[in-house]
Structures
1.
Amino acid sequence: VQLGVWGGLVQAGGSLRLSCEASGRTFSAYHMGWFRQAPGKQRELVAAISSGGYAYYADSVKGRTTISRDNVKNTLYLQMNSLKPEDTAVYFCAADSRYSWATFLKSFEYSYWGQGTQVTVSS
């Protein structure tokens, strides 16, 4: 599985949809997550979706973010609304099929990572 990520630049209060396209034939079997890392900060889990469609959201984005997946297009999405300057970071997607859902949310050691894309929210 290879992951390609696309992001962008947006003004505060705006919206952005990140996409993570996976190659490979077993996309549906993977738990997948979106992470971000701002300068000087640790990488954090923003949202995740299980192979069965269960979703997790960090408190910092809950209520204004939706994670989804299209197993036909092999693509993971992150719809972010009401963006804030503190959402500025490099965003990564990650995938793994080895773990239970609970372990996936804690591990941060995944088989596949996207290359990362810069998201900048201007004030």
2.
Amino acid sequence: DVQLVESGGGSVQTGGSLILSCAASDQSSKTTCISWFRQIPGKERERVSTISRGHGVPYIADSVKGRFTISKDNAKNTLYLQMNSLKPEDTATYLCAAKSSCLFARYNYWGQGTQVTVS
């Protein structure tokens, strides 16, 4: 089955930067649409950014627009999230998720997450 493994989290000071990675075990149609989510305990999971292997402009949430950038390296089956100008409110567990189409609501595959702490 598809496995997603996140890495790159850590602790940074306000204004700092991190690059998160999500390595996918599968580059088939199962992972055509890949997203970054973040989860803060007690709060609803937030979709941060989405990118498709096909057409379309990547989605970036308003809360991170201008600071975060999503990208992918198809040769490495890896998704990235460049996070700049980090704020304490960006503190969360960041997870990547994949599905076969961005038109579908449900994500079929999830990683375990990587913790980002901004202080």
3.
Amino acid sequence: QVQLVESGGGLVQPGGSLRLSCAASGFTFRTYFMTWVRQATGKGLEWVSDIYIGDGNTYYSDSVKGRFTISRDNANNTLYLQMNSLKPEDTALYYCARVGPAFENDYWGQGTQVTVSS
């Protein structure tokens, strides 16, 4: 069965960095677009970044552009999110998700908490 397991979250000071990982299994990882989505406490889901297949085009929300980098290791079925220059407003539960054939997020991980605070 499809599984997505995030890791790498934690507590970091403003201006710091974290790298999130998402280990994928149960499907042919290299053939799917993948995405990161976050949810701050009491708020709705916010799209963060996408990575496509093939030439691996990447896309970012305006709130993280220039600070976050999405990447994928198809040999090891792992998705990454490198987060630099973190701000308190980046505090959220971060989810990775698989993007299905109808461009819906059809499978989600359990999330990893990122807290940016001094």
